Amino acid sequence: MHSNLKLLTSLFVVALAALTLVACSGFGSFSFTEQSNVIIVKGNSLPLADLLPTTIPMEVDLEQELERQDASGARAVYLTELYLEMVDESEEPDFDFLDSLTLQVSSDSHGPDTIAWKDPVGTGQRRVELDVDDSIDIKPHAEEGLRFRTQASGSSPSKDAQFRVFATFRVDVL
Fold first, then answer.
1. For residue 23, what are the contacts with CB-CB under 8 A and spacing of at least 6?
2. Which of 10, 38, 90, 149 is buried most, with the most CB atoms less than 10 Å from its CB?
3. Starting from the edge strand earliest in sequence, which strands make up the sheet with 131-132, in order?
4. Percent of the chain with pLDDT over 90
5. pLDDT of residue 149
């Protein structure tokens, strides 16, 4: 019984030391979500390729997020979730006008890298979750001014469609 108590005490000390080491060294990760401004796709006009903005109006401020999380630096940044969601003011009820959607990330000297896609989009959806390649480190893009570009197929919506893009990022900290 005495040796079991010694073993438990030793395990507790080792676990506490390991937690202290991890906490002091800053290793870990955190996630944050950004949303775009409202995107408006006008109904009954040009082909869809001309309607969707090629650049999504979204800014990702990695340094600000690191400060907010009290983290000293980022080792890597990954996109973990991306979805489009109709806003209440949208005249178009859903994303039926979209057949497929691909999202690429780029910066001045990196990319483009395809990081999200949905093919087919499906019918009757007010929220479309894209498949994400969460193995691509987008930190080099974020450091130079992250830009998202879209490629879409489908047809013009019958009414004005208004939606936002939501992106969740995981930051691995040094």
1. none
2. 90
3. 131-132, 113-118, 98-106, 147-154
4. 32
5. 81
| Domain assignments of the chain as residue spans, ordered by start | 29-173
- DSSP for 45-112, written as a single string: SS-HHHHS-SB------HHHHHHHTT-S-EEEEEEEEEEEEE-TT-SS-SSTTEEEEEEEEE-SSS--
Tokens coding 28: 């870990």
Tally the residues of the chain: 174
Distance CA(118)–CA(102), nearest Å, equals 7
Query: What span, in angstroms and rounded, lies between the C-alpha atoms of 174 and 165?
Result: 29
What pLDDT digit, counting tens, does each position of 76-107 carry?
Answer: 889 999 999 999 999 999 999 999 999 888 88
The pLDDT of 144-167, averaged and rounded, is 85
